[in-house]
Amino acid sequence: MNKKLxxxxxxxxxxxxxxVWVRQIVVAGLAGAIAWQVGDLLVKSGGVVAAxxxxxxxxxxxxxxxxxxxxQIVGTAxxxxxxxxxxxxxxxxxxxxxxxxxMCAVVxxxxxxxxVASVNVPVTALIVIGxxxxxxxxxxxxxxxxxxxxxxxxxxxxSHPKTPVxxxxxxxxxxxxxxxxxxxxxxxxxxxxxxxxDAGNWLAKARLLIEEIPAIRSQSVEARGHxxxxxxxxxxxxxxxxxxxxxxxxxxxxxxxxxRTLFDCAVSGxxxxxxxxxxxxxxxAASYAISSKFEDEGPSSDDSYxxxxxxxxxxxxxxxxxLIGDAQDADQEQIVRAMSMAANIDRIADSLDQNSPALxxxxxxxxxxxxxxxxxxxxxxxxxxxxxxxxRVRKIIGR
Length: 399
Known about the structure:
InterPro entries: ArAE_1. By secondary structure, the protein is mainly alpha-helical.
């Protein structure tokens, strides 16, 4: 009996500890079922295609579903055209299927479609040229695809309990907490005398923090895009969250550099006893500054963390003075490494205060081209096409 209760408890925990995932799959299942029903009602035998497209298009955010839904529609139009042309020329068979897949890949590349839409092009093309192909069937399947994409866009709003800004704040808070804890761990290790193994563990954790930055960048970009068109979203709030994401990225990079420096110091013989305390104090001050800035704060937070960043700068300055005082007696390489840590802590304070020109004066790319549904916007592609056409017309007239 006890074993059965434990098993039931474990099974229950598998779902209760993954509430967001459960919500997403429930919404996806409901959306697919409704897409099948609506597709069958509006289009003859269109339920299956609508459900397939809905399942492919639904994502955890409304903004991304709009983009991917648009990519799905573009892919469907291209796939249907290519598929019908291939079947008309070669009938349904080996040649038409192979030619359809190849041509869809070429056309998707020519239009600079992103990864998701490029995959959707041949998929939807094969759906279109499935059994029982005719002109009316192709149009029905095209209509079913549009229905499935529209339902996916609608239901994606309910896939996540938080807004894009809320998700950005959650990610930033989580990573900043880990960053502050890592600096505190390094501070305690330096104060008590750390080993090369300890430094290696710190460096490994710092590298893992760096790997979380792309997700924060992607989410903050989504928050900005969502704020541009969603009526209840605040643009200033999204912009502030975006800057906070960049500030955290710069902070985490400095923490990884500090961890690497401590590791190099351990390999070279360790930190001098005379500077251990100053380095530990500086790292602790930086940890507290990060906690004060990001934990339990939203985009409209006050400047209560200013004193914490000031303390971090003062601790960094005290570390530099201590190193300069020991410059004649200590190993020069170790002095240089410790001075670099002081500079890293100053950069962390500047990033937290958001007063560094590196944050606001340097344009940060919104998102990698590979992550976009359209690598080049529709407006950009039309502008390029117009320039090419006008250039060729001028050449012809010039002749």
